[in-house]
Write a sequence for this structure.
């Protein structure tokens, strides 16, 4: 057990782990990023950072964005085309769903873009609320795809900074500052829009 724990703390262990993850091809990073839309406790920042570390900046970004976009579209369309269309008669009795539907009325396209741009906003709730609302479907999907693209690019930059910090510790400080800034802005935006 002690030998295994010592190996866990070595750079070689993590490099071998990243190499084996990178060897899985594009399916694993896309699915991993996609699952975050279904299971919110998964840390998207860590998933994107892992994808960038294993596949490089550009491919890590593309795989992560593809997964986040695919998961977001699936969740939104599930709420919009299945729940709202076939089960809304029963679901609309829920005060929580009615409150979520009313919450959406405060958003215009630019506010929605900001909401999707921030990595620490609850995206699963966002897909649910906009899915059961009357918000224009095409406008939601386009805005969500663009916002998530910018968000994943920022997180990929964070992940690239972490990889670079292995060679130069200054990048670690930059990565922490970038992460802290994104977290602070997300919290302020969530508080303003009653998402806490």
């Amino acid at each position: 057990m002690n030998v295994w724990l010592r190996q866990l703390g070595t750079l070689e262990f993590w490099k071998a782990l990243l190499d084996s993850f990178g060897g899985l091809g594009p399916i694993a990073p896309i699915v991993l990023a996609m699952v975050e839309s279904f299971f919110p406790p998964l840390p998207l920042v860590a998933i994107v950072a892992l994808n960038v570390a294993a596949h490089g900046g550009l491919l890590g970004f593309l795989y992560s964005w593809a997964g986040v976009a695919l998961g977001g579209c699936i969740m939104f369309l599930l709420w919009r085309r299945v729940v709202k269309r076939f089960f809304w008669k029963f679901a609309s009795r829920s005060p929580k769903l009615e409150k979520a539907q009313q919450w959406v009325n405060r958003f215009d396209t630019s506010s929605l873009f900001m909401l999707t741009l921030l990595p620490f906003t609850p995206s699963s709730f966002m897909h649910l609320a906009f899915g059961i609302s009357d918000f224009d479907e095409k406008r939601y999907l386009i805005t969500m795809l663009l916002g998530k693209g910018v968000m994943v690019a920022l997180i990929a930059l964070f992940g690239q900074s972490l990889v670079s910090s292995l060679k130069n510790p200054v990048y670690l400080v930059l990565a922490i500052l970038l992460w802290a800034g994104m977290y602070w802005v997300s919290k302020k935006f969530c508080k303003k829009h009653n998402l806490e």
